[in-house]
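<amino_acid_chain>
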Amino acid sequence: MKILIIGSVAAGTSVAAKARRNSEENEIVIYDKDTDISYAVCGIPYAIGGEIPDFEELTPRDAKWFKKRYNVDIFTSHEVIAINHEKKEISGKHLITGDLFTDNYDLLVFATGSTPKAPDAFEESNFSNVFQVKNINSGKKVKSFIENKKPTTAVVVGAGYIGLEVAEQLKERGIKVIILQRGKHPMSHLDWDMSIRIEDEMVKQGIDFRPEETIQSLVGDTQLDEVITNKGTKLSADMYILATGVRPNVALAQSIGVKLGKAGAIATDNTLQTNIPDVYAVGDVAESFHVITGKPIYRPLASTANKMGRIAGDAMTGGQLRFQGVLGTGILRFFDLTIAQTGLTEKEALAEGYEVAVLSNIKPDKPDYMHGKEMVIKAVADKLTHRILGVQIIGPQGVDKRIDVFASTITLGVTAEDLFHMDLAYAPPFSTTKDPVAYTGMALTNALTTAPLITPHDLMELQKNNENITIIDTRDPKSYEKNHVLNAINIPLAELREKASTLDKSKKTIVYCNKGVTGNASQNVLRSKGFKEVYNLSGGNKNYQEIFKHSK
């Protein structure tokens, strides 16, 4: 049997490696129009910035290595142009010599990846100082431009993973950076009340962030001299980075009748086989499905590509591996912040019809005496089943450890109660005695059973609608005087038992402290005193003030 793979980055080479491990009998051939194979795409921004000294570190394997290790033939600079699936034959062109070639197959794998999108204004342009980060060669061009032209200013278009990573690296090289974003907030897949914390980091780092601003027209010949935005602003920079997402490379697959899914990428079954027998699709060209909803999604991530490749290589050679979906787990470093997400966000959960409990949990990753630093953990749970649906975390340290725990447990369908009972490792250099993961489970359990939470946004809506509510700030008077929730009265927890009788027990009551713990204790006091409807403000005054600042 001959397995022919089109594409040789994460997914394609994973197919080949696993298929070879399963069988020495099959012939395995890979074609790729690029010059590099199996490279670390996600490391490119750091090589541009010099944090990774040499691009060669991102390309540790070449075709000769793969041939020796796996007996797989890889042909780089070979573009497959057409496929005759009835004859099971491909044809293409060697991009260096111009020679044409043909080959045949028994099994065909599309690992053709994705292509960066460009804003409409750039579709027909070709400027020497405009770049997209898509492969090793494109990364080398950016680095070469920086080293040879010594730019001092840059415009980055897009505030997703690549946009923020590149912006960080450019700023670290002393380049003044402006970021333009189509949406209102960076990392638009996150909930906005988490994204705003990235904006705070931009201010801290001197990044000029311009939300809801897009490029409409260009001025320049061979070099882009100036852009004009939808707000009428004229911007001039030495270099421009376009980081506005990617689209799957599906044209070749569609030419033989391969069907796309609802997410716009190639639809497959759990072996990664397409609607056409003997034809597979893996990596950025293929659609995934969500572990929680079971619905198709498109999340082009290197971790998913590697997983898909291994599963397809196993399944097509008689193995039992099957694709089980993704949670869309992602993580990003942006200067002093780590930004991570897994599962459904609040907005996604609501769109899916879930009635949710939302906890904003502000906790240090380890004790203060071990120099712990606060993380903001936003957790979303289903009120009906108590299942954890998703988590977002932003903080200076300790985020990666917690997001992986949450991703593991969400995959297994755990409830809020389960989180609290997990036996997590503790020692002062690594965690607090009650780890933030366990505390999230404990607080969510309370919220889902006896002690409901209210989000800052929902409280603001009540205030906006002039609802007849009581808001109690349970902190000390000095903290209250510094800042407090609009229309809140100050009754410290130590005085609440005595003064509870002066309050209307029938009114909806919201209590809060600085971050939530004392608020919960106050909530319990009022509940025991016969108050009918008492809510604790999720994340306390600290979370409220952050959100209030950005909602003006």
